[in-house]
Design a protein that fits this description.
Blueprint: H1 6-15, H2 25-28, E1 30-37, E2 40-48, H3 49-55, H4 59-69, E3 75-83, E4 121-128, H5 136-149, E5 154-158, H6 166-170, E6 178-179, E7 182-183, E8 186-188, E9 191-195, H7 210-222, E10 229-235, H8 242-250, E11 253-260, H9 264-279, E12 284-289, E13 294-295, E14 302-303, H10 310-318, E15 322-325, H11 330-337, H12 342-345, H13 350-374
Helix pairs in contact: 5-13, 7-8, 9-10
Family: Belongs to the Mrp/NBP35 ATP-binding proteins family. In the N-terminal section; belongs to the MIP18 family.
Protein name: Iron-sulfur cluster carrier protein
Subunit structure: Homodimer.
Length: 376
């Protein structure tokens, strides 16, 4: 058996061929990345959309061959990443067959027709922010678990590829299994969850360019066995770029929750987030004001460190619902670090009640959308 090296992976990609055309994966694209975690080989192949459809039928055989023929491999997972321009054929073995990504590759601009929902998933919603550092992932985790406490069947997808925090915040340390070519999400705190952080080492930097991020998000949507869900909550990367557009293109988003802090600079970015989803014809379910105020744990004195009420005013200005205020408390940070969302760890705390109220409000809107979808 071959060692886990780029040459060994490329050899498998050449050996597995389409029986009709004789083409292999490296005739149709290039090896853009390969990582190994706990013996599982994760491979990204860059190609264009048309050639991706020709590679897709080969993926199951590639994964099985990598597992069988590469020494110490206990499993394999292959994702496809897209470029606008066709990918050039791989260079011959020994000739440096790793071609740099096209930095100018971007999906076509403007709103695109929404893709299909993942199988057996009722609704998909995004939790987004115009900038980082506003507590978006903490809000997404507690919202998802809170929706589960509301009686909904919930999945949580961590699409923040460069900064995946879901495994730590949910206390999920296991690696997902691959069954019949589909990743099995992990279960915890009443919901199912999947993150790119479950597939790579926690300390490994995800040095991926735009097309690879877009391909990974698409595959986490389509190649994960989510099971029967009422709602899939997607924790988006901060900003208004490729990842957001990819999600809107890949699936029919039922809505977006925008997270902001009260200060003006954060609200400017929240405004851009609202505008982005409106341009993509995605309903904005509302704005959440995170870090709204600080309560001293000793005397309960309330201090508005970053101002207060800015998100409510911005919601009124943009004509979208205001979903509530989340306090800034050390317990929220501690619960995330300890792998137990505060809606579970301290449901009667001020933060636990605030997140439960948020989940109740959003859950009511989602139930109405589900009833409308099902024709009730």
């Amino acid at each position: 058996m071959a060692q886990i090296t780029q040459a060994a992976i490329e050899r498998v990609l050449r050996d597995v061929r389409d029986p009709r055309s004789g083409a292999c994966a490296l005739d149709l694209g290039t090896l853009d990345a390969a990582t190994v975690r706990d013996g599982v080989v994760h491979v990204a192949i860059a190609t264009d959309r048309d050639r991706a459809e020709r590679i897709r039928p080969l993926i199951a055989e590639i994964e099985a061959t990598l597992t069988r023929e590469v020494e110490s491999a206990t499993g394999a997972s292959v994702i496809l990443t897209s470029h606008r321009a066709p990918a050039a054929p791989a260079a011959p073995q020994g000739g440096g067959g790793h071609r740099p990504l096209n930095l100018g590759a971007r999906p076509p601009g403007g709103a695109q027709p929404a893709g299909p929902l993942p199988p057996n998933v009722g609704l998909v919603i995004a939790v987004a922010s115009g900038k980082g550092g506003v507590g978006k992932s903490t809000t997404a985790v507690n919202l998802a678990v809170g929706l589960g406490l509301e009686g909904l069947r919930v999945g949580l997808l961590d699409a923040d590829v460069h900064g995946p925090s879901l495994p730590r915040m949910m206390g999920m340390n296991s690696q997902p299994e691959v069954r019949d070519g589909r990743l099995q999400p992990l279960h915890g705190h009443g919901i199912t969850a999947m993150s790119i952080g479950m597939l790579v080492e926690e300390t490994k930097a995800m040095i991926w360019r735009g097309p690879m991020v877009m391909g990974a998000i698409g595959q986490l949507l389509s190649d994960v066995d989510w099971g029967e869900l009422d709602v899939l909550v997607v924790d988006m990367p901060p900003g208004t770029g490729d990842a957001q557009l990819t999600l809107a293109q890949k699936t029919a988003l039922a809505g977006a929750v925008i997270v902001s802090t009260p200060q003006d600079i954060a609200l400017l970015d929240a405004r851009r987030g609202v505008a982005m989803f409106e341009k993509m014809r995605v309903p904005v379910l509302g704005i959440v004001e995170n870090m709204s105020y600080f309560c001293c744990p000793n005397c309960n004195h309330r201090t508005e460190l970053f101002g207060h009420g800015g998100a409510r005013a911005e919601a009124e200005k943009t004509g979208v619902p205001f979903l509530g205020e989340i306090p800034l408390l050390a317990d929220i940070r501690a619960s995330g670090d300890n792998g137990a969302p505060i809606v579970i760890a301290a449901p009667d705390s001020a933060a636990g009640k605030a997140y439960r109220a948020l989940a109740h409000t959003v859950g009511g809107a989602l139930r109405r959308l589900l009833e409308k979808k099902r024709g009730k």
